[in-house]
Specification:
- Pfam families: DUF6197.
- InterPro entries: DUF6197.
- The protein is built from 7 helices and no strands.
- The chain is an all-alpha fold and 154 residues long.
- Helix 1 packs across helix 2 and helix 1 packs antiparallel against helix 6.
- The longest helix has 22 residues.
- It is globular.
């Protein structure tokens, strides 16, 4: 698998996440980790749906090199664009630093909290994820140096 043929993009991750949550429904609850309640067919959280989207574009373990670099960039960028979308604007680094969290942990927490708002619907969650996917189109060369970075996304 060459980098040219490998197309991991934030939009593909997010589209797969929206497809998944539409198929299984939105889960809301008090506990983040409930193995018996999450999977291929059980309702899931926005965070779990994003994780399913990430897994859908992950290269095979036997693949080495550039496809993994492209995948890692798409993984991070999809989390940034989705968490910015649920936040309603770019997330400031001041917020996770004040809480002494990593950026990744803070952004994942935003996804969890957004989806757990009372009366949040599956349709609402899927639409929000699809809106975020549209902000980061799939047709670009995601492995190029011009790809958005943390400095211009946050």
């Amino acid at each position: 698998m060459t980098a040219r043929r490998y197309h991991a993009t934030p939009a593909r991750i997010l589209t797969a996440a929206a497809d998944h949550i539409e198929r299984v429904g939105l889960y809301q609850g008090d506990h983040l980790w409930q193995p018996g309640r999450m999977g291929d067919t059980a309702p899931c959280t926005v965070l779990h749906a994003w994780g399913r989207g990430v897994r859908s574009v992950r290269p095979r373990w036997s693949v080495r090199g550039e496809p993994w670099d492209i995948f890692q960039r798409a993984l991070f960028d999809s989390l940034v664009v989705l968490s910015n979308q649920v936040n309603g604007r770019p997330v400031s680094g001041v917020r996770w630093r004040k809480l002494r969290l990593t950026e990744d942990a803070y952004r994942r927490t935003l996804l969890w909290c957004w989806g757990d708002k009372p009366d949040r619907t599956t349709a609402e969650a899927a639409a929000m994820i699809r809106t975020a996917a549209a902000l980061h189109p799939s047709d670009g060369d995601h492995g190029s140096p011009g790809c958005p970075t943390l400095n211009n996304m946050v």
